[in-house]
C-alpha cells in the first residue's frame, strides 16, 4: 500500500522513475521495488521521497478524516517502518480544516541502543524534545546532550540532529514541532 501511494503521487506529478531516483539519490531499481511493495523504504528514504513529491510522510501511511480534533489513543497516525528503531505516533491531527495544524506533537518510542535515524537530519522547523521515560542522547551538530526523564531539549530550525538511546529500556519522549514537518 505504501509503495502504491508513492507511485500514484510520482505519476500524478509526471516524474519518471529515473528522475525520481536522481532527485532522492537512490537507485531506480530500489525505488521500483519500493513502489511494487517488494521492500519498504527506510525512514530517511521515505523522507527524501516525500520532499521530492512535496507530500507529507503521513499521507503515505494512513487515511485520516479531516477536522478531527480529538484523537483517541488507538486511532493515532503511526509511523513504524521495518528495520528502524523508532516508532512515531502523531498526537496532533495531520489534517485540519482543509489544511494542516500549525503545531505537530509526536509521541516517540526509541528502542534500547537504537538511533532515531540513520543520519543526522535538519528541517525548517523549531523542535522541542521532552523525555517522558528513560534517557536519550541528543546529537546537535558537534554537541552532545544527555536528556533524562523530565528534561527537555530545544532545537532551532536547520540544526542537524539525531537521537540515541544508550539504555537497556525503551525511551519514551515527545517531539513538538512548529511548523509541522511531516
Note down, in words, how this protein is organized.
It contains five helices and nine strands; from the N terminus they run H-H-H-H-H-E-E-E-E-E-E-E-E-E. It has two domains: 2-55, Orthogonal Bundle (434 Repressor (Amino-terminal Domain)), CATH 1.10.260.40; 73-178, Jelly Rolls (Sandwich). Strand 5 and strand 6 (143-148) form a beta hairpin. The model has no long low-confidence stretch (mean pLDDT 87). Helix content is 23%, strand content 28%.
Helical content, roughly?
Answer: 10-25%
The fraction of residues assigned to DSSP E strands is 25-35%
The secondary structure category is alpha+beta
CATH topology of the largest domain: Jelly Rolls
Rg calculated over all Cα atoms: 17 Å
Tertiary shape: globular
Query: How many DSSP E strands?
Result: 9
CATH top level of the largest domain is: Mainly Beta
Number of helical segments?
5
Task: Output the helix-strand order.
Answer: HHHHHEEEEEEEEE
Main sheet overview: 6 strands, antiparallel
Oligomer classification: single chain
Amino acid at each position: 500500500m505504501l509503495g502504491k501511494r508513492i507511485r500514484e503521487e510520482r505519476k500524478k506529478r509526471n516524474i519518471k522513475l529515473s528522475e525520481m531516483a536522481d532527485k532522492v539519490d537512490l537507485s531506480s531499481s530500489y525505488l521500483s521495488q519500493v513502489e511494487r511493495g517488494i521492500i519498504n523504504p527506510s525512514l530517511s528514504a521515505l523522507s527524501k521521497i516525500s520532499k521530492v513529491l512535496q507530500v507529507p510522510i503521513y499521507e503515505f501511511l494512513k487515511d485520516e478524516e479531516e477536522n478531527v480534533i480529538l484523537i483517541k489513543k488507538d486511532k493515532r497516525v503511526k509511523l513504524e517502518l521495518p528495520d528502524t528503531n523508532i516508532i512515531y505516533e502523531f498526537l496532533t491531527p495531520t489534517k485540519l480544516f482543509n489544511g494542516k495544524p500549525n503545531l505537530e506533537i509526536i509521541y516517540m518510542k526509541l528502542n534500547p541502543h537504537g538511533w532515531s535515524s540513520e543520519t543526522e537530519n535538519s528541517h525548517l522547523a523549531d523542535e522541542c524534545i521532552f523525555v517522558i521515560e528513560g534517557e536519550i542522547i541528543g546529537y546537535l551538530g558537534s554537541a552532545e546532550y544527555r536528556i533524562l526523564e523530565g528534561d527537555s531539549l530545544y532545537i532551532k530550525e536547520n540544526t542537524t540532529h539525531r537521537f540515541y538511546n544508550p539504555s537497556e529500556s525503551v525511551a519514551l519522549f515527545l517531539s513538538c514541532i512548529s511548523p509541522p514537518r511531516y
